[in-house]
Amino acid sequence: MMIEVPPQPADLDQRALRVFLKAIELVGGPRGLVERRRLTWLPSLMEAAFAVVLHEEHHRTTEEIAQFLGLSSAAVRNMLRAPTEAVVERLQGEEPAAHNVHIAGGLARLAYQALRREASSAGA
Fold first, then answer.
1. Distances, alpha carbon 118 to alpha carbons 15, 21, 64, 103, 115, in Å
2. From which domain of life does this come (predicted)?
3. What's the CA gap between 115 and 18, in Å, rounded?
4. What is the pTM of this model?
């Protein structure tokens, strides 16, 4: 009798942590957060890191991600649709053109994109 072992998904916690840490790196590390007085971004950033990984790698719906994180579907949509350009503007000290931007969501998306670029250049 043959036992079938289903493929194991990538470790969600580990991937979300990598996105979270990359996002902190993009803001200038822990010191950058302190200097910008943005330590309050950290809880939202962790939620956004999970949301991005669940969406991009596990193909979860907005509703599934919202249920997993204990957030509203609207909050998750805002995270996943946050314009990354507005985050770059904010990090450069400018007021973003778009108002009500979910900075943590955009930052997590930027971090995820950076990690993907790094992985593809390492494999090339």
1. 14, 14, 28, 22, 5
2. Bacteria
3. 8
4. 0.84
> Do 86 and 78 form a contact (C-beta atoms < 8 A)?
no
Residue 37 corresponds to which tokens in the numbers above? Answer: 């007085």
pLDDT digits (tens, 9 = 90+) for 105-119: 999 999 999 999 998
Task: Please report where in the chains the tokens 């996943």 appear, as a residue.
Answer: 80
CB-based contacts of 60: which residues, under 8 Å, 6+ apart? 54, 68
- The DSSP line for the chain is -PPP-PPPPP-HHHHHHHHHHHHHHHTTHHHHHHHTT-TTHHHHHHHHHHHHHHHHTT---HHHHHHHHT--HHHHHHHHH--HHHHHHHHTTPPPSSSS--HHHHHHHHHHHHHHHHHHHHH-
Q: Which residue has the higher pLDDT, 98 or 65?
A: 65
The answer for residues whose C-beta is within 8 angstroms of residue 43's C-beta and 6 or more apart is none
- Give the integer Cα–Cα distance in Å for 107 and 19: 9
